[in-house]
Amino acid sequence: MLTKVKKIIFMKRLEKMLATYQIKIMHFIPGRVRISSPYWEGNSKIVSQLVPLLELEPKILSVRHTSETGTILVEYDPSPEVDEKQIEQWFDIVQRVHNSVITREVTGS
């Protein structure tokens, strides 16, 4: 029971963190997470920078973008070595890239 409660609290924390960037967690099970954003539809500049960075992460096995729906599917090592802190670091990368590209688009730099 505790692990289920802990997972719910963790998911709420992630959802709150990502909501600022209009990023939603669509599906999350150990080893797979699907996230979406309206900014990722089509040939998104955000995705073109984000996917290669996530693919560099040692515990991430694959990253797939579906441009029609604006989703990214991340498959990662589901072993206990990948903990909440690691997953939060990956979402931090998502936030940084997302914010950086949007800022450049708005400011024109």
SSE layout and pairings?
Blueprint: H1 2-19, E1 24-29, E2 32-36, H2 45-55, E3 60-66, E4 71-76, H3 84-107
Antiparallel strand pairs: 1-2, 2-4, 3-4
Helix pairs in contact: 2-3
Describe the structure.
It is a single chain. 49% of the residues lie in helices and 22% in strands. The chain is built from three helices and four strands. β1 (24-29) and β2 form a beta hairpin. It has a four-stranded antiparallel β-sheet with strand order 1-2-4-3, with helices on one face. The protein has 109 residues and is α+β, with helices and mostly antiparallel strands. α2 runs antiparallel to α3. The N and C termini lie far apart (50 Å). It has helices at 2-19, 45-55, 84-107, and strands at 24-29, 32-36, 60-66, 71-76. The longest helix has 24 residues, at 84-107.
